[in-house]
Amino acid sequence: MxxxxxxxxxxxxIDDLFAQLxxxxxxxxxxxxxxxxxxxxxxxxxxxxxxDLEARYKKMxxxxxxxxxxxxxxFSKSAESFREAFQxxxxxxKSQSQKKEDKPM
Length: 105
Description:
- It is a single chain.
- The chain has helices at residues 3-26, 33-62, 68-102.
- By secondary structure, it is mainly alpha-helical.
- α2 runs antiparallel to α3.
- Keywords: Coiled coil.
- Residues 7-63 form a coiled coil.
């Protein structure tokens, strides 16, 4: 994959993750109080990673050929950290949803 293809794929991945994050943010009212505290904790972590990811993407876009591999690697690591934190956040919603389904009616 060349530099331009990677940048396009990275931009699409970022946009998709941010859209999914917005979707989860719109559902935070569905969480119980105990889960909301964990949600806020994870969301604070995600916001830090999000800012780092955007900065690394910009740096990657602006990098010359000499620094391209280094910028690509740093961006990839930051993107993976964001994905992991996002999955952790999504698991709050999944576990609460499963608890609702497990309750007898």
